[in-house]
Amino acid sequence: MAENACYTLLTSLPHIDSLFNSRITPISRFQLDRRLSMLDMADQERLVMIENLLHWDHLADDVNESALIRLAEKARDQLDSQTLRELVDWRLDMRTIVAALRRKHLGEAAPTTAKWSYGTRYEYIRSHWSSPTLGLGKAFPWISKVAECLRTGNCVELEKTLLQAVWDQLNRLATRHQFDFEAVVIYVLRWNLVARWTSYDTGKAQVRFRKLIDKSLGEFRDQLPVSN
After folding, report:
1. HSE-up of 203 (CA within 13 Å, CB side)?
2. Helix (H) or strand (E) run with residue 178 in it
3. Do residues 35 and 13 lie in contact, with contact meaning Cβ atoms separated by under 8 Å?
4. Dist CA 122 CA 128 (whole Å)
């Protein structure tokens, strides 16, 4: 996409000030999609691919891991932007870390399959399974808080911690880009986070939290003792 076209698109979009102080999204998804139609077809397809891979709801729901690994590899191969590759790697590493923390919380041993998740750190995580922070506390300082939220069952704080971590990473990447395709991707991903938070429902979050734990337990769930 031409730089002047990116400039026109981005200057037409309302500024997103914050995540947790927002009550509504700064622009509706319908209006956002209309503005995004200014992208050429190739960039529209790349944006859809990135959203499908990194959208919070999409990654948090019950998904086919093998299919997502293939999608991640395909997406990464098609990205010629170092920033977008970095973003994909970071976000997929995050998902792998959270999945590992859930398994550890349930008392499970390290995965034994060769490629149990995707991202760049799954082998490192397996070799540092005994570490409370999986040996990644410095690179991902939010790990300790996520582990604590899992321990206490605080689903609201867990959600906020993960959303804030993604928000902060997008902000870091945004300092390198203003009026290019990367800036458009960062804007859309920020919009997704605000949409997620402004539609947040505590009751639904608790149900979702329980489902995620049950999913992690898998076939062992029915073997647990029933509390009276």
Report:
1. 0
2. none
3. yes
4. 10
Per-residue model confidence as pLDDT tens for the chain (228 residues): 566 778 899 999 999 988 999 889 999 999 999 999 999 999 999 999 899 888 755 444 455 667 777 778 888 888 989 999 999 999 989 989 998 999 999 999 998 877 777 778 988 999 999 999 999 999 999 999 999 999 999 988 999 999 999 999 999 999 999 899 999 999 999 999 999 998 876 555 556 656 655 655 554 444 444 444
Give the Cα separation of 178 and 120 in Å (integer). Answer: 27
- 198 CB contacts (<8 Å, ≥6 apart)? 22, 23, 24, 25
Neighbours of 55 (CB within 10 A): 18
Residue 107 phi/psi, 5-degree rounding, is 80, 15
Using alpha carbons, select from 83, 67, 166 the residue that is nearest to residue 118: 67
pTM over 0.90: no
The sign of the torsion formed by the CA atoms of 173, 177, 178, 182 equals negative
- Cβ–Cβ under 8 Å, residues 19 and 159: no
The residue extents of the domains of the chain are 3-9+29-215
Per the document, the length of the chain is 228
**For the purposes of burial, counting CB atoms within 10 Å of the CB of 25, is it exposed (0-12), middle (13-18) or buried (19 or more)?**
buried
